[in-house]
C-alpha cells in the first residue's frame, strides 16, 4: 500500500484519554441527545434504548440523554427518569449491553425547573428561582406549549432538589453507569439559577454571582458523594441564547468565568462545554470561545457544538480540549468512530424523527460497510 495514505494514528480523536476516573480508548464522545423514546407512563428506558446505546458503544464515552432526577424535574414528553426502581432496572439493561460491547456510559442528570409546564406536573405550577416566566416552550403530550410564570422555590424546595440530584446519582451507580454528568445548560433549572434575569432572589441562592452559582455547587457536592468524588462531569453552555432571558453578555460570561474557576476546587471529572453557535453550517467552531475556559479550568475539557472530524482533530491538536462530543453525527452514524478512522463522510440524520417515538430514525441508521453504497463508503478519503 502507498505510504502516503494517512493512518488512524495521525488523528488525535483516536488517541486514548483519561477524564477524571474515566479511561477512554478514543476521544470521540457521544453528546447527550434527548430522543423521546421512553413512551410509557413510568418513563422507563426500554429495549430500544439498549439497542440504540449498544449500537454506539464504540464511542470513547457515551453521555446519555438528559434523564429526570425526580418527578418534579419532568418537562418534556417520553424522556426517561432515574428516580424509580423500574427505571433503574431499565437503565441496568442499557449499561449491561454497552459494557458487554466494551463501551463506557455516563448518565446526564436533568431538571427543567421553570421550563416545565403544568401539563407535566399534574396541573401544578413548576418551580424556578423567582416568579419570572423563562419564556421558552415545553414539549407536552399536546405539543409545544409556552411556559408559564413559575412559583419561586423556597429554601426547602431547593434542599429537596439537591437531595433529588444526590439520590439520582446514587441510583445511576446502582444502574451500573460509569459516572454522571450534571446538565447545567440550556433554559433549565440550574441555568435559570445562574441567570441574573431569571434569578431575582435575595437569599443565599441569588443576589450576586456567588449566590446564583450556589445551587450548582451544592448539586456538584451532593452528586459527588455517592461517587466518592470521581466520575462526575458538569455541562455548561456559557454562550446560550434563547428568547429574551437567555443571552450571553458581559455579565453572564463573567459569571461563567468565575464559576469555571470555582469548579477547579470541586470534584469535577470533566467540564463539558457547549461552545458558541455557528452562524452557518459551513463555519468552523469558534475555538477562541472555548479557549477562554481552557485557560480557567485545570481539569479535562470536552468541547462540543458543530464539530466534525477535521475541526475535532484541530481543537485537540491545539490543546484547547481533551475530547470532543458529537451530537447530530451520532444520531445518524452509530459507528462514528469507525467512520472517522476510515475518513469517511458521515451520513446525515433526519431531524423529523429526532423526537418522534419508535425505532424509525432511532436504531435503523446503517453501519459503515453495510447497505447500499457500502463498497464506496469503505474507500478511504484523503
Ligand atoms: C435531538 C437533540 C437532542 C438533544 N438533547 C440534549 C440533552 O438531552 N442534553 C443536552 O445537554 N444537550 C442536548 N442536545 C444538545 C447536544 O448535546 C449538542 O450540544 C448539539 O447537538 C450540538 O452538537 P453537534 O453540533 O455535535 O450536534 C440535544 C441536541 C439534539 C439535536
Automatic annotation (TrEMBL):
It comes from the Bacteria. Residues 18-340 form the NADH:flavin oxidoreductase/NADH oxidase N-terminal domain. InterPro entries: Aldolase_TIM, OxRdtase_FMN_N, Oye-like. Gene3D superfamilies: Aldolase class I (3.20.20.70). It holds the Pfam family Oxidored_FMN. This is Alkene reductase. It comes from Streptomyces nigrescens.
Amino acid at each position: 500500500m502507498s505510504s502516503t495514505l494517512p493512518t488512524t494514528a495521525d488523528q488525535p480523536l483516536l488517541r486514548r484519554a483519561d477524564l477524571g476516573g474515566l479511561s477512554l480508548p478514543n476521544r470521540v464522545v457521544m453528546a447527550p441527545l434527548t430522543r423521546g423514546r421512553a413512551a410509557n407512563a413510568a418513563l422507563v428506558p426500554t429495549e430500544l434504548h439498549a439497542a440504540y446505546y449498544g449500537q454506539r458503544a464504540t464511542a470513547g464515552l457515551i453521555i446519555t440523554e438528559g434523564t429526570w432526577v425526580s418527578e418534579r424535574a419532568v418537562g418534556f414528553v417520553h424522556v426517561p427518569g432515574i428516580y424509580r426502581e423500574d427505571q433503574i432496572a431499565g437503565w441496568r439493561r442499557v449499561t449491561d449491553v454497552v459494557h458487554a460491547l466494551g463501551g463506557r456510559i455516563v448518565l446526564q442528570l436533568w431538571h427543567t425547573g421553570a421550563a416545565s409546564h403544568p401539563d407535566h406536573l399534574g396541573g401544578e405550577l413548576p418551580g424556578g428561582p423567582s416568579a419570572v416566566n423563562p419564556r421558552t416552550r415545553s414539549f407536552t403530550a399536546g405539543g409545544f406549549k409556552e411556559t408559564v410564570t413559575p412559583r419561586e422555590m423556597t429554601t426547602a424546595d431547593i434542599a429537596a432538589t439537591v437531595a433529588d440530584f444526590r439520590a439520582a446519582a446514587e441510583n445511576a451507580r446502582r444502574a451500573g453507569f460509569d459516572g454522571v454528568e450534571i446538565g447545567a445548560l440550556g433554559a433549565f433549572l440550574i441555568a435559570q439559577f445562574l441567570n441574573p434575569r431569571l434569578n431575582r432572589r435575595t437569599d443565599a441562592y441569588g443576589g450576586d454571582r456567588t449566590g446564583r452559582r450556589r445551587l450548582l455547587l451544592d448539586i456538584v457536592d451532593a452528586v459527588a458523594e455517592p461517587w466518592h468524588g470521581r466520575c462526575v462531569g458538569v455541562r455548561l453552555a456559557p454562550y446560550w441564547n434563547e428568547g429574551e432571558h437567555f443571552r450571553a453578555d458581559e455579565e453572564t460570561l463573567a459569571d461563567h468565568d468565575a464559576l469555571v474557576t470555582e469548579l477547579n476546587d470541586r470534584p469535577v471529572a470533566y467540564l463539558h462545554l457547549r461552545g458558541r453557535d455557528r452562524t452557518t453550517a459551513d463555519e468552523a467552531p469558534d475555538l477562541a470561545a472555548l479557549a477562554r475556559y481552557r485557560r480557567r479550568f485545570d481539569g479535562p475539557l470536552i468541547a462540543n457544538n458543530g464539530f466534525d472530524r477535521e475541526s475535532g482533530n484541530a481543537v485537540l491538536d491545539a490543546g484547547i480540549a481533551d475530547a470532543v462530543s458529537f451530537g447530530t453525527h451520532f444520531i445518524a452514524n452509530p459507528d462514528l468512530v469507525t467512520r472517522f478512522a476510515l475518513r469517511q463522510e458521515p451520513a446525515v440524520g433526519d431531524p423529523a424523527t429526532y423526537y418522534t417515538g419508535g425505532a424509525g430514525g432511532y436504531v435503523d441508521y446503517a453501519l459503515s460497510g453495510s447497505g447500499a453504497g457500502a463498497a464506496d463508503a469503505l474507500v478511504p478519503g484523503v
